Structure formats: structure tokens, C-alpha cells
Amino acid sequence: MFVFHWIVGVLVGAVLLAALARRLRAPYPAFLALGGVGLAFLPGMPSLSLDPELALALFLAPVLMDAGYSTSLRDLMRNARPIAGLAVGAVAATTAAVAAVALWLVPDMPLAAAIVLGAVVAPPDAVAALSVLGHVSLPHRLATILRGESLLNDAASLLIYRLGVAAAVTGHFSVSEVAPAFAVGVVGSLVAGPLAALVYLRILRRVEEPVSVIVLQFAAAFGLWIAAEAMELSGVLTVVSFAITVARRAPGQTSPRLRVISNAVWETAIFVLNVLAFVLIGEQIGPILSRMTPEQEFAYASVAGAVVVTVILVRIAWVLPASAVRRVGFGSGSVHPDDLRPTRDLGLGAGFAVSWSGMRGLVTIATALALPEGGPEGREFPYRDLIVLTAFCVVIGTLVVQGLTLRPILARLGLEDSDPVGHEVGRARAEAYGAAVDALKGDQSEAADALRREFHAALAQAEAHEEGLAPEGLPTDEPRRRAIHAARDRLLALRRNGRIGDDAYFVLEQELDWAELNATPRAEA
To answer: What subcellular locations does the record give (predicted)?
Structure first.
């Protein structure tokens, strides 16, 4: 019963921390990290553990599925050069620098363990980056680069991580043996993901219930990761390519009701996974600290502090020189003119914005938790306590230092663009309204005539706009909301005075919900 109460308390505390983060317009993982610090020193914590082999599948598969589904393949291709530079080059540079710092401070540390430490702390986190970007005004192209980096850098870091773990455990490593398998794994992952997506979509056509579809979505995320790992493919690339393929093909066969429900479920699941990750790592920090001698406390604190500084400085050193000479492509590259024009002269300002957006989070925690713990049937990974503690400090340091300062820094830099997404939305909305009018031709009913007048009014506003952008909402949206609000009030009154029962009220409430969803979503929503 105590564990149940404790879990409820943790979830309620996480919700309150997330609400505080929204109020302060800060990334909620930063506040969850601070909550994890509190859990590390809280007496009487229940003993929680997770099989290291399941850690990566549990935490990374759904996060990558969710991020991949909302990723624009077109924008990834347009910004392939800067994304590759960050997702591969910056990860490799950070891993090497952290490994060098660790070996310098802890000479007895095996090289493989030092490389694993570097791979654990190298990749910035998608959830942390997106939670920050949701509260700041950032040029669309820079936001695309950061999203693409946080989506793909896991593949590079996990490759280095797995090679380092294997070398540390077996004591043997050969590039000549690994390279062919790696090449086959990358190609195989990029083929297996889309093929699995096509099979999944055929199955999806036969399933209509939202609950069943959402269960299939999670089963696909976990099952695909486990299958890819079993076949020695890249779980990251397989899941991401699967999600992107499904996102391109599924909307035509997915009902609006399913999309609304699915988005809410996945957003909740990602939040709960973040809470669980910080709880698990916080639960491990307490025992680690209790096992340390005073000399170890100083040594480990020195390593953790040095690694936090290293990951921040290496990213700055990687991005700023490249942006200055325009090799990374923050001011140039193969992009659409609408994306290029407003960011052509951002220069070092854009580079600093990208370099300061390197918050670590769920990926770093998951890979640290996945290190072998030892026990009766195996030995513990060398310097595991140091790596877990350092990973926790890097997450805390980057989320707090960078996450909480990124918004004011971006406001100070004054980076702006001409809202290319808004322009695409306005033009596409006008074309969609035109197609709606064409579909009503020949229908002389009063209902069709009312719809035609509504869409014609919106098209008239688009034609009057200097760039042909249609308005955000239809003319009847606001009257519809006002009428539905009045209808809700009347239903509540009928329910209160006993003229209708709860069963009838819930039926009518759902009807009004769907009627209100017919209105264009308001900006504040």
C-alpha cells in the first residue's frame, strides 16, 4: 500500500512541476530533473529496479515513434547537411572529448568505459528540446534542425554506446569485424522500417476501434524495437523510418476521432515515461552516494562537473565556427526560398541558439540505466556508479543551466523569420476551401447553400490578402462556439433540476463535443 501511495504522490508532484514549468514557460523536464534530485535524498524510498535490457526499449521506442511521426521528411531532406553535422559529427566529438576528460581525471578507467560515458551524455534530448521550442519564437529552419538532430543523434550515440559496452564486457573489439555488420545494419534498418510500416497499415485498415488502434501503435513501437535489436539492426533507425512512413500514408485512412484520442494518449505516455525515468535514476543516486567514501565523493563530483562543462563547450566549439564559415548551413544550403530568406544573415546568432539548445534528458537517463548492474549471473559494468551519477549531473546541469536560460537568450538574440509554415498553411487552406466549394457544386439543398456561403466568405478574405492567405477560422466558428456554449448551459440546467438523467446528459454532451470540434481550433488551444 505504501508503494501505491508513493507512486500516486510522485505522479501528482510531477503534474504540479509540469504546471509550474508551463507557468514559467520553461521545459518541464528541467523541473522533473530537480524533482529527481529531491527523490535521491528522500528517506524511505521504495526499492525500484528495471531490467537493463528493457530500459532502452521502454523509454526510447515510444519517444522515437512519437517524434518520428511528427517529423517532416521534406524538411529533413532540405536540412540534411546541418542535421547530419550535429547528429553524427557533434555526437562523435562530444563522445571523444568526454572520454578524454574521464581518462584524464580517472586514469584507471578502461577506455571502453570512458567511451560509453561519452556516448551516454552525447545526444541532446528530443523531449527537452521540443518542450523549450514550444515556448520560444525561433526561425522555422533552426527549429527543424534541432528536431531533426534530436531525432537522429540517438542512432550515432547508441552505436558507439553498444560497441563500448561490448568491448568493456568482452574485452575484445575489432573495427574490421564491426564495420561490415554496421553497414548492413544501417541499410537493413532503413529497409525494414518502411516495409514493416506497409504491413502495419494493411492491418490498420481492418481495425476501427480507437482503443484497439492505440494498443497496436504501442505494440508496434515496442515490438519493432525488440525485433530490430534481435536481428542486430538499429532500433532507432528502424523505429524512426517506420514512424515517418506511417505518418506519410496513414492520415488518409485514419478517422479524426482517432487522431484526437491518439494524440492525447501519446502525449500522456511520453510525460509518464519521463517521470518514470527521473524516478528510477533518482532512486539509484541515493544508494550510489551511500556507497561512496569522502574521497570518492570529491573525485566523482569533479568528474561530473568537468563532463557537464565539456558537453556544453564542445557543442559551442562545434557549432559556432561552422556557422561562422557557413559550412553547417545555418545561413545557406539547399532549402526553400521561404526558409532561406529570413535566416540568411543570422550568422553567429543562429549558431549560438543551436549550440545552446543541447539539453540532455530521457535518452541519457535510459542509456545509463541500461548499463549492466551485475549480480549472481554477471559482473557489473566497470565504473557504473560513476557513469550513472555523471549522466544524472549532466541532465540536471544542461536542463537547468541551458533549459531555463534558453528562452531569455533567444529573446535577446531577436531571431525572427517570415513564418514560412504560416504562409504554407494560409495558401493550402485557401486551396482546401476551394476544393470544398467545388465538391458542393450541383447540390441545391439549403445546407449545401449555407456551406457554400461560408467557404466563399473565407475565400473572399484570402483573395483580398496580399499573399492569398486564407483566414485562420471560418466565419461561423465563433457563432458556433457561442451557440454550443448556450446549449451546454441549458443541458446542465436540465440535469440539475432532474428533467434529464446522467445517461441522457452524457449522450448529448458527446454530440455537442463533436459539434464544437467542427470549429477551427483556436490559437490559444
So the answer is: Cell membrane
